[in-house]
Amino acid sequence: MKTAPSESSITLDTLQPADYAAWLRLAQGYKTFYETELPLAAYQHTWDRLLQGDEVHALAARVQGQLVGITHYLFHASTWSAPVCYLQDLFVDEAARGQCVAQALIAQVAHAARARGAVRLYWGTHQSNARARRLYDRVATHHGFIRYDYALESDN
Q1: 80 phi and psi angles, rounded to 5 deg
Q2: CB 109 within 8 A of CB 85
Q3: Other C-beta atoms lying within 10 Å of the C-beta of residue 77
Q4: Is the pTM for the entire model greater than 0.85?
Q5: Closest by CA position to 135, among listed 83, 109, 97
Q6: 122: exposed, middle or buried (C-beta count within 10 Å: 0-12, 13-18, 19+)?
Q7: Which residue from 32, 20, 8 is spatially nearest to 89, judged by alpha carbons?
């Protein structure tokens, strides 16, 4: 019988160049979940930005050395407060779900946000993402906001 990893067996660190294939599989899984298709070049561009770590940041969750979860986050100004941290993407391999991986990633982003002087960490998810929302409802507060996206494509 396969045992679930304990929170102490999860290691968190930054992505390394050798992680590309495993990261790509997870990133594509994330985009597929949200019914979004991207060309391979978009993934490569994002990967390059994540490795630079200047504007966008990433964390890797590993169990027994295998990359099983990722999160991408960034810091930005706020009109009414000190800078805030936006956790943009969070994805855990199906086989590792329910084993504290997502919670560990969120906690580590929170640690990075505090270290950077951010006063708030926030994220969004689709209302139908019931499994993730059970975790989010335990570790954070939902304030009832709904997000709208205004398309900025050219009128031509």
Answers
A1: -110, 5
A2: yes
A3: 8
A4: yes
A5: 97
A6: middle
A7: 32
Task: Identify the CA nearest to 86 among candidates 71, 76, 97.
Answer: 76
Q: At what angle do helices 20-33 and 40-52 cross, to 10 degrees?
A: 120
What is the per-residue pLDDT across 10-64, written as a single tens digit (0 to 9) for each?
Answer: 999 999 999 999 999 999 999 999 999 999 999 999 999 999 999 999 999 999 9
Q: How far apart are CA 132 and CA 142, in angstroms?
A: 13
DSSP state of 60: E
Buried b (16+ CB within 10 A) or exposed e, 78-92: eeeeeebbbbebbbb
Expressed in angstroms, the distance from the first to the final Cα of the chain is: 59
| pLDDT tens-digit series, residues 114-143 | 999 999 999 998 888 888 889 899 999 999
- For residue 97, give both structure tokens: 């779900």
DSSP 48: H
> Is residue 63 a contact partner of residue 9, using CB atoms and an 8 Å limit?
yes
